[in-house]
Amino acid sequence: MPKNKTHKIFALLFAAVFWLTACGEKPNPEIAIQTSVAETVAAQTPVVITQTPADTPFPTKTPFAAPTFDSAPTMPPTASGLVDGKFECAKASLQDETVVDGKIFKAGEQFVKTWYVKNESPCVWDETYRIIYWDGDLLGGAYYYPMPQAVAPGQTVPITVLFTAPSAPGKYRSSWKLQTPDKISYGAGMYDAAFYADIVVADLTTTTALAYDIVAADLTITREPAYGCEPANMVYTARVVISTNGPLKFKYQIRQQDGNNSYKREGETNESGKFTDSKHTWMLGRAADQNNTRWMQIVITEPFYREYPPVYFEFYCP
Q1: Phi, psi angle pair for 101, to nearest 5°
Q2: Residue 243: CB atoms within 10 Å
Q3: DSSP string, 221-275
């Protein structure tokens, strides 16, 4: 121990003894010395204060911000949406459309395409919903458009886009989807399919009748009555929709699984469009075999020969 500290200790001891003597009490020198030494040592011992540090949170990454479309983007959106978005609102179906697939346009020609989309969700689609470019050729359109009007659940909205045919001849497709305010992109039907404009660019001044074609032939079969076996005969009606990309005359027939191929007709479109026919029927009685193996089929016979896949239907009497 340093000398100066020793001197201080003894000075304190003598001062304590003197004070006790002055007060008329007989001091115990040994106790007084021990007490003073303990107080002095305690005064010189450093006090260590321990403190539990506050919990420091682990650093977190800044969440990725999905791109917004307040101004026209330079690149088309490709993300399918956010995880916490309202997916129940992203349900739609395509009811109808204008401009048949494969329609021929001249280079630079403008045209309007309309899709009739039904809101299959429990949500109201307001103007914060969008129609966004998804894939293929932009065809002179913007990358997105606002929903043209509010659409209640179960309602159908016409979505119209102005396009411009490219300058180079060829086949082009422009695919589109819808988008919620949460940036969830969705198409139509159970497969979330994009709806699209599908066109052909050609020199119409040199295009001959042989260039026009049937671009689709659809067959749907309905039953009357829909269920049961009353009355005695059940009638199945074939509805034919044949789409062409220009003015075209054609012949077709409906073939049946039972070998009845007698239904033959002629059709014509004055421009690109759709030809419909719902006159062919197939009648089944209660005694007919009940199964799901019957079918009908569209076959084009002129100006070319083309078979389309058979469409199967069920006949049961529960």
Answers
A1: -60, 140
A2: 20
A3: EEEESSSS--SSEEEEEEEEEEEESSSEEEEEEEEETTS---EEEEEEESSSEEE
Q: What is the pLDDT of residues 217-242, one digit of tens each?
A: 999 999 999 888 888 889 999 999 99
The model's pLDDT over 118-177, given as tens digits with 9 standing for 90+, comes to 999 999 999 999 999 999 999 998 999 999 999 999 999 999 999 999 999 888 999 999
| 8 phi, psi to nearest 5 deg | -65, -40
Quick one: tokens of 171? 């086949």
CATH (residue range 213-315) = 2.60.40.10
Start and end residues for every CATH 2.60.40.10 domain found in the chain: 87-207, 213-315
The whole-model pTM stands at: 0.56
What CA–CA distances, in Å, run from 29 to 9, 42, 200? 14, 20, 119
CATH class of 87-207: mainly beta
Q: Counting Cβ atoms within 10 Å, is residue 212 exposed (0-12), middle (13-18) or buried (19+)? A: buried
